[in-house]
Please model this.
Amino acid sequence: MRKIAATYIFPCNRPPVKNGILICGPNGTVVNIIDNKKELKEESGLEFYSGILVPGFVNTHCHLELSHLKGKIEENAGIGGFIGKINTLRNEETESIEKAIQFADRKMWAAGIAAVGDISNSILTLDTKIKSKIFYHTFVESFGFHPSRAERAFEFAKFIQNEFQENNLNASIVPHSPYSVSKLLFNRIKENAFAEKSILTIHNQESKGEAQFFIDGTGPIANHLQHNLGIDISLWQASGKSSLSSVLKYLSAENQLLLVHSTFTKKADLDDLKKCRSLKNTFFVLCPNSNLYIENQLPPVSLFRNEKLNICLGTDSLASNHNLSVLSEMITLQQNLPEIEMEELLIWATLNGAKALGIEPGFGSFQSGKKPGVNLITGIDFKNMKLTEQSTVKRLV
Ligand SMILES: [Zn+2]
Model:
């Protein structure tokens, strides 16, 4: 048994405990939290840390297979510049890509990340995921703007999903974004998700360009499809509505859904969403560092909090972020929105992420029987109970 004490323990399923002791079994299973009523008594074998103990983080949106693109895409290039560059940079040597994937996986583990929802377009991450100490749910992402590509794109996604599942890794097939998936492919994914009762995720309202493409069919997305990819977009009929409102019908209400980014989501979109599905199985994944990297804009967090949405956090990929660190995402939010309590941010980073990925029975909080991992965060402003730019994380279990 390990007895770990710290200035505060944040179990994340109940209020923080001052000077508490977390008891863990040899394999990291949480046994109990002892509440000393704020007085810490000396005890043999007790480890004490100045800082806070929190459960392992859940990163609900990552693209491990883009890890070799770190530092290769300029910041604030906007969505057109970003997706155009990704397209030309994807084809590097497999060996160097796999090395970057493995390195990123290890860094995430060291940064206290216990579970990841990872977008994959290939099986490049398979070996790393088999060996990793991190729990992975792989979102096999399918795209194809032209309906003629739908069947081939879906079959390919099915092949990749099988490769992961045969190695006992969770995997579900998901659409890339509202603007890159034809109706035919959307329907194929929807039927499949409904039959498998699987978790869906989609990049949602990441850029202004996405809105423009749905409103009048022009802008950087239209340019990218035509000029970078050489696709004939004459079939495209702009719906005149927001991208989210246009595709809600393909995201079946029975399936758990993770909407990623939502940088340009408005109140009217949320009203439309509530007409189509419950907020209970809908999660909003914020990736603030990536949003600042690409569009230099943060999502409307205050609106999301007022609407009492389920919020969780993601790092996105190293193509649009300097680190794959959930703590770093929390610090960015804390700096920009000082009114948010640290405890709320921690719940987004742990328990809400575990719920989003359907792994709450084992992850996300210090409840007995769970094996969520134990992180120590130091550099806390205890007077105001806030994270600071100096906050760092160390994995203890
Ligand atoms: Zn992404």
The CA atoms of residues 74 and 82 lie 8 Å apart.
